[in-house]
Design a protein that fits this description.
The two termini are 35 Å apart. By secondary structure, the protein is α/β, with parallel strands linked by helices. Strands 1, 2, 3 and 4 form a 4-stranded parallel beta sheet that branches. The protein is globular, with a radius of gyration of 18 Å. It has 5 helices and 4 strands.
Length: 191
Amino acid sequence: MKFKAVATAEDITGDVKNAEDFRYAEETKLAWEEGKLSADITEEQRKVTEADIIIFQFPMYWFNVPAIMKGWFDRVLTLGFAYTQEEPYTQGLFKDKKAMLSFTTGSLKSSFGPNSIHGDMSVTLWPLQNGILHYCGFQVLAPHIFWAPYCAAETYDNIMKGWRKRLQVLLGEEPLSFTPEDCFEKEKVSC
């Protein structure tokens, strides 16, 4: 996919419904329903549809995904295709698919924790794992983190050996647990 970091009206082929009050989510939902999303987006959506598991591999950058990957989330995981407000989280459209974050950090594991300089990694990952992946229904697997992987060849070989071992059993892993939606009042969206 030729990535764009920013989602724009150019993602839609043809006219938009309301150019005066452009709302990306609603416009891309309509374009998705009418088959008018740009070809690069529909190709990525096809890949997501066919996948049983998606591994998002990236270097952590400013405690988040790089802008180009955020652009992928914004452009590919469109309203209607990837999520609905009526059926989020465990009821979501991708409830039969698994997803996992796999990334490198620029700091050692000891730098991340409740009382460490960078804070708790689970808090850092919450917007990605719960707010994007779980919201779309994915069964989110524990992340695979390569802590400051700039190391001696022997250490690197051990890191990669562990990664290969995990990949062999990945589809059988239990997903992370999130607070069930029925613990919350149903959110009502109104304008």
